[in-house]
Amino acid sequence: MPPVPRHGPVATTALRCAVYLRVSLDPTGEGLAVERQRQDCERLARQGGWTVTQTYTDNSISATDRTKVRPAYDGWWLTTRPADSPHWSAGILTD
């Protein structure tokens, strides 16, 4: 199921955006779920006329344990402020 924008389009001009992908458990290690997420997020970006400039992926890493290290999430979170992220100004996440 494609992601649904929660608040509609955020701008009328082209945005550079980052995508964060995560699945808790990937028993095969093939990354099929995060690949489906990637396709959904990229489709949403195209529909909005946005350009995906960065993709962060945590495959088979649970988010229920706050002490667990999620390298891609940490990287995404550290660059959420515009001053820290000259490459993107919006984020697309899906669940």
Describe this structure in words.
This protein has one domain (16-93): Rossmann fold, CATH 3.40.50.1390. The chain has helices at 32-48, 71-78, and strands at 16-23, 51-59, 90-93. The chain has a three-stranded parallel beta sheet, with helices on both faces. By secondary structure, it is α/β, with parallel strands linked by helices. 26% of the residues lie in helices and 22% in strands. The mean pLDDT is 82. It contains two helices and three strands.
Oligomer: single chain
Strand content: 15-25%
CATH superfamily membership:
Resolvase, N-terminal catalytic domain
What is the 3D form?
flat
Could you name the CATH class?
A: Alpha Beta
For the residues shown, what is the average pLDDT?
82
- Please tally the helical runs, counting DSSP H or I stretches of 4 or more residues: 2
Largest sheet geometry: 3 strands, parallel
CA distance, first residue to last residue: 10 Å
